[in-house]
Structure prediction request, 559 residues.
Amino acid sequence: MKVLVAVKRVVDYNVKVRAKADGSDVDLNNVKMAINPFCEIAVEEAIRLREAGVATEVIAVSIGDKSCQEQIRTSLALGADRGIQVETEGAVEPLVVAKLLKGVIEKEQPQLVILGKQSIDGDNNQTGQMLGALTNMPQGTFASELVVDGDKITVTREVDGGLQTLSLNLPAIVTTDLRLNEPRYASLPNIMKAKKKQMDVYSPADLGVEPKAHLTTLKVEPPPERKAGIMVASVEELVDKLKNEAKVIS
Amino acid sequence: MSTLVIAEHNNSGIKPATLCTVAAAQAMGAEVDILVAGADCAGAGEAAAAVAGVRKVLVADNAVYAHLLAENVSLLIAELGADYDNILAPDTTNGKNIMPRVAALLDVGQISDIISVESADIFKRPIYAGNVIATVQSADAKKVITVRCTAFDGVADSGGSASVESVDAVHDAGISSFVGEEVAVSDRPELTAASIIISGGRGMQNGENFHMLESIADKLGAAVGASRAAVDAGFVPNDMQVGQTGKIVAPDLYIAVGISGAIQHLAGMKDSKVIVAINKDEDAPIFQVADYGLVADLFTAIPELDAAL
Ligand SMILES: Cc1cc2nc3c(=O)[nH]c(=O)nc-3n(C[C@H](O)[C@H](O)[C@H](O)COP(=O)(O)OP(=O)(O)OC[C@H]3O[C@@H](n4cnc5c(N)ncnc54)[C@H](O)[C@@H]3O)c2cc1C
Ligand SMILES: Nc1ncnc2c1ncn2[C@@H]1O[C@H](COP(=O)(O)O)[C@@H](O)[C@H]1O
Prediction:
């Protein structure tokens, strides 16, 4: 079975992103970029499925300008077999990403599509579910465990109350949560090998999609500042402050 | 203008997340109807009809909507949504699971996690783990939105007298089925509804030690939360995780114990009214957002706190 993995290029999760002073955008000058952590988990899961003999081929797809080829190469170094870049000018919204991924699915016919549950830049948490609707595939979102069994997949999901397990017909969409697995590091020989792996580039027009904006960002700003707090010297002082100053306990 | 709110419920009653979503819907200035979808959910339908300021409650009570399978429920909402300008759901795992599917069926974008309604088509929402607040404008005629509940005070759950209509539409996509669930049972309040939360991090060292926090929680009527590191290490289950990718909370009092204060954790709790941090490292970033910081070993401070309450 073929597995398609969607990987997004985002600001590294350790970077504390700030709004530009004029509020026009976030300041991404010289910041470190990386694979979205949830996508890294998606790649890892696909590779494990291939190592377990369940998957035969793992294809990493990224949508964006040329720079996202770096994240495709990283996925190839981690073990994906080949890559596809859909070249767009700058960032596109989840619905457009989903339409482009649908186009790739029509070409590649994977049995399983794994995405991250959320990109840590836009914090949208939309693309996998949208792709499910567009392709009429079932979705196992926020997955912490997957078991492929014949023409079905059993997905354990992290939900508000605890865990929920669903059975989905294949082909299916899965979005990853943090506990699905712990991604490996790419070894130097694999990074070298990745340079020779196949990477195809499509345009949105090749996939019959015309990118469209549904949402315009008018302004970005820092969140409200918290006023500076104080340090207390003892538990006794803490309890006194909570009772008599903050009045949050009685 | 009219707005359809998707209820978060447990079949017999509605959850507080429904009330804050109604509040956001009312801020958009339209008539508000509620959809209760589920199986054997008549009780939740009645509870929804009592919510203040609601015009009508639609009840889709059918086995195909049990466990709110996204494949089925999204078809229902997309059909009903034809009659509405806005469709809103809370930022619960159900809302996050179902609504993007609805948006794609309707060929519109989704606006995730709004924290304010500026006008009928302009909203604020946090991005980059809450380090930045974006003001966004939707170009779509129909708006599909999830609401960050901590940002809206819920409307009253009584005083309303909405009419109740049953919906006969049965949508069974037939591509997914429910296998089982492991639901945490606790006598303590739910994390997202609690007015006091005490959370433990990696500093707690093991799950057994969380009993120390539970004892304090019981005295304060508090819920117990955790950092991702504590969940990853297997100390406590995942539904206790607070943060960018866990639950977003904003209680009156949040006590962080043995938590360093990574951006991703702060994203889930920095809108709490009063924050207390107990950490043995005086340089821990958590102290930068704390109203009251105590540099101490938690294994002495927590028993002392317990005794003082
Ligand atoms: C994509 C992504 C999403 C994430 N989402 C979340 C999320 O939603 N929520 C979340 O919490 N994290 C999340 N994280 C993880 C986050 O980056 C941090 O790794 C995590 O929050 C650290 O947890 P911690 O503070 O418990 O552990 P640590 O950072 O290890 O801190 C432990 C703290 O305990 C203190 N301590 C130790 N022993 C004692 C003692 N005896 N007495 C007092 N203090 C003590 C230490 O000084 C230290 O400050 C995410 C990470 C990524 C990459
Ligand atoms: N530009 C993109 N290229 C590839 N995959 C993407 C892109 N945007 C989103 N995705 C996938 O969709 C997931 C969820 O993203 P989002 O809906 O933006 O939170 C990500 O983790 C990726 O797997």
Notes: The two ends of chain B are 51 Å apart (CA to CA). Chain B touches chain A through 87 residues (CB under 8 Å).
